[in-house]
Amino acid sequence: MAKEKGTPTRFSNYIFKKLMESTKSQKEIAEEAGYSNPNMITMLKLGHVKLALDRVPAMAKALNVDPLDLFKIALTQFYDEQAVRFLTEIIEGGISPSEKKILQIIRDASGTDTPQLTPERAKKLAEIFG
User: Fold this and answer.
1) What is d(CA 44, CA 79) in angstroms, rounded to the nearest whole number?
2) Which residue of 13, 44, 54, 101 sits 20 to 30 Å from the alpha carbon of 36, by its own alpha carbon?
3) How far is 128 from 17, CA to CA, in rounded Å?
4) pLDDT per residue over 39-77, tens digit each?
């Protein structure tokens, strides 16, 4: 079922959160993402427009977020959860079932953000799997 324009979505909430966390102005983010009009950022965060998938790399760089995370969340603008899960499985092909389970535990514990691999975390993971 399509959402009404302007209805907050998982994507628009994510963009809003990342904008709040950024030290950049919306104008700077718009320019870095390739938009000539900074109002596009406002329209994205309010759910009035969708982020074109070909703009994901530039927007991810502007917001300093993982492009794959942004891409997967951006997919939710166009597809239902079942389709997004299917597309994510295709994107993440090559990961063993055991690795998928480990990755899912990490994702569940991290929320919507990709956890940063700090030296301390790398050491702990090496200890766990070493």
Assistant:
1) 17
2) 13
3) 32
4) 999 999 998 999 999 999 999 999 999 888 899 999 999
